[in-house]
Design goal:
Layout: H1 9-21, E1 37-38, H2 48-57, E2 78-81, E3 85-87, E4 95-96, E5 99-103, E6 108-111, E7 119-123, E8 125-134, E9 137-139, E10 151-152, E11 156-158, E12 162-171, E13 174-176, E14 321-322, E15 326-328, E16 330-341, E17 344-346, E18 359-360, E19 364-366, E20 377-380, E21 386-391, E22 394-395, E23 402-404, E24 429-432, E25 437-441, E26 448-452, E27 457-461, E28 464-469
Parallel strand pairs: 1-3, 2-5, 3-6, 4-7, 5-8, 6-8, 7-11, 8-12, 9-13, 10-14, 11-15, 12-16, 13-17, 14-18, 15-19, 16-20, 16-21, 17-22, 19-23
Antiparallel strand pairs: 24-25, 25-26, 27-28
């Protein structure tokens, strides 16, 4: 007689789910944020950085995934904050997947403690809803004879993706350019880390040898080394007077005598042609980065970054402070019912005041340059943006609210303080005529949408929830 063993009823459901669902069934992790203090590393269950890591990494949340993320690690691709969050260490877990970040029934706050940027979107279709982003600070790393790094997006940096910000208040966030000092550091500052002989990085300082990085190894990131002197994503260039043809990676500064300059947001390093007569390189800062000392000519800063003075022994230029609350490098940004108050952008100081960086876009900076070496293509989704308010924004060079770089200019021409006005749409609206037909406008162009409905309650128009629909 053959016998069969059946699992208990509760275990039977689990067994069926695993059999039918495969790997996806393992991804049902509660991504609620229940722990307020966050070191940014993703190593503490219940923190925001842990939830972001889980959302990125799918069914294997602890897998490094150095060059990309499968996503869908949270049920419904939703992270819900159940407590206020204070970021206490540089945010090393970047949003890199499709996800919605929202509050529970209470509007929650994500704060940077007046020291750190709390949020960074690398890619994905991302919605940030019903939150407060307060007291963020993006300050570029310090240079010496090298240029200061750029401070970009005090509360939110958008590297790429399609980002919707809805019912969010941005308050008292600041973007501050990196400074230069009395010498001793010959690389350029990064977007966060200060330089040594090597460039500073996106997450950490440079040193006398390897380029600054400080990240987790995700996103293809690393600092430059003797064998690979250019930095990867977030990495500064190697700099021990290597006389090499290297460049800082995204967010990384140049190394001393590295030849090619800072990466996006990184300051330029020194170029001493007596020490490296065949270098032929550049001390130029990357976008927003200050220029480094150059023994043959002045070191040019990137857009918004200060130049280094054209005299022997002069220090590098200060970094730019761009986008007090938000900086958009690529991708699209839609803004719905968003308030900006008391956000600011301040350029970094140089030893020579004429070489300070610029402060542009007290609330928002949109990088739109088509120059290939800058690689910017940010835009605001005007058709789906509405009800923005700006209060008490500050920017050292004017444009306290919104600043755009312009397309189609030469490298020098993008330094023009171009500003584009935006005619945002109205909020979605709904009415019902006498025949029971629901009439709606899409909230962007104002064009009517006509459809019939037999329901009473709510509907969604272009992603915006409309209540009280009766037909």
């Amino acid at each position: 007689m053959n016998t069969r063993t059946f699992p208990a009823p509760g275990k039977l459901a689990l067994a069926i789910a695993l059999a039918l669902g495969g790997p996806a069934a393992q991804a049902a992790v509660d991504c609620s944020v229940t722990v307020g203090p966050d070191n940014g590393a993703g190593d503490t269950l219940g923190t925001l950085s842990w939830a972001i890591m889980t959302a990125n990494n799918g069914s294997a949340p602890n897998t490094p995934y150095p060059n990309g993320h499968p996503g869908h690690g949270c049920p419904g691709d939703v992270i819900t904050l159940k407590t206020d969050v204070t970021v206490q260490g540089v945010m090393k877990r970047l949003i890199d997947s499709d996800v919605t970040l929202q509050s529970d029934a209470t509007t929650r706050t994500i704060g940077g403690g007046n020291a750190l940027r709390p949020m960074f979107v690398k890619s994905g279709r991302v919605t940030i809803r019903n939150l407060k982003l307060n007291n963020g600070r993006a300050q570029g790393g310090t240079g010496g004879d090298g240029g200061g790094g750029a401070g970009l997006g005090g509360a939110l940096f958008i590297y790429d993706g399609s980002v919707t910000v809805e019912a969010v208040n941005f308050n008292a966030n600041n973007a501050i350019g990196g400074t230069t000092n009395s010498g001793g550091m010959m690389g350029g500052g990064g977007m966060f880390g200060s330089s040594g002989a090597s460039g500073g990085g996106l997450f950490g300082n440079g040193s006398l040898g390897d380029g600054g990085y400080g990240g987790t190894g995700a996103y293809g990131g690393f600092g430059g080394t003797r064998s690979h002197p250019s930095g990867g994503f977030g990495g500064g260039a190697y700099g021990s007077f290597a006389c090499s043809g290297s460049r800082g990676g995204f967010g990384g500064g140049a190394g001393a005598n590295n030849g090619l300059g800072g990466g996006f947001g990184g300051g330029g390093g020194i170029v001493d042609f007596q020490m490296c007569p065949n270098n032929g390189g550049s001390s130029q800062g990357g976008f927003g980065g200050g220029g480094g000392y150059n023994s043959r000519s002045y070191g040019r800063g990137g857009f918004g970054g200060g130049n280094a003075a054209a005299s022997n022994g002069a220090r590098g230029g200060g970094g730019g402070g761009l986008g007090g609350a938000i900086f958009v490098k690529r991708g699209t940004l839609a803004l719905k019912d968003v308030n900006f108050s008391a956000n600011g952008a301040v350029g970094g100081l140089s030893v020579a005041p004429s070489n300070n960086g610029a402060g542009l876009g007290g609330a928002i900076f949109i990088c739109t340059s088509s120059e290939s070496w800058i690689d910017c293509s940010g835009t605001i989704d005007e058709a789906n943006s509405y009800r923005l308010t700006f209060d008490n924004g500050t920017a050292a060079e004017g444009q306290p609210n919104l600043f755009w770089t312009q397309r189609g200019h030469s490298t020098a021409g993008i330094g023009d303080k171009g500003r584009q006005s935006i005619a945002f749409g109205a909020a979605p609206s709904v009415s019902v005529d006498g025949t029971g037909t629901v009439l709606a406008t899409d909230g962007g162009s104002g064009n009517p949408i006509t459809f019939t409905s037999q329901t009473t309650g709510t509907c969604t128009i272009n992603g915006s929830l409309v209540t009280g629909v009766t037909a």
